[in-house]
Amino acid sequence: MPKSVLIIDDNEDISTLLKDHLIHQGFVVTTALEGKSGVEKARKLHIDVITIDFNMPGANGVEVYEELRKHPETATIPVIFFSSIVTGLIRRMVPASPRVRFIRKPCTIAEIEQSITEMAALPKLAPPPLPPDTPGRSPDDSTTNRR
Length: 147
Description:
- The chain is α/β, with parallel strands linked by helices.
- It has helices at 12-24, 35-44, 61-69, 87-93, 109-120, and strands at residues 4-8, 28-32, 49-52, 79-83, 100-104.
- It has a five-stranded parallel beta sheet, with helices on both faces.
- Helix 2 packs parallel to helix 3.
- The longest helix is centred in the N-terminal third of the chain and has 13 residues, at 12-24.
């Protein structure tokens, strides 16, 4: 089954270029031009890797990342920050994880493709457990009841 990528970037030219290249390489690609719709798409689709720009209208890339981590269905999806902002700044704002990478724009298409391919090859992880006060989980139950 082809791996799926969600590109969250307000630059349509970059999104289209990357999307066309990745489709040609066999990926299934979805795009979102801002964070809110990106989170919605990630929650509805079975995405394998997400690329996120930092500077976007509405919410920056780190805010989008934090929102993705709040939802069990998106909490463990590998993320690549793909941005012209100094990656050191973003690194200080995002907890270190083997499921997060940082690529500075501009870069070669081969560099981003390699990172996407490597991240898509990571094993799927089970979502983190819901907090005890989450609807759908009984207080005396150590397992989650997702509906």
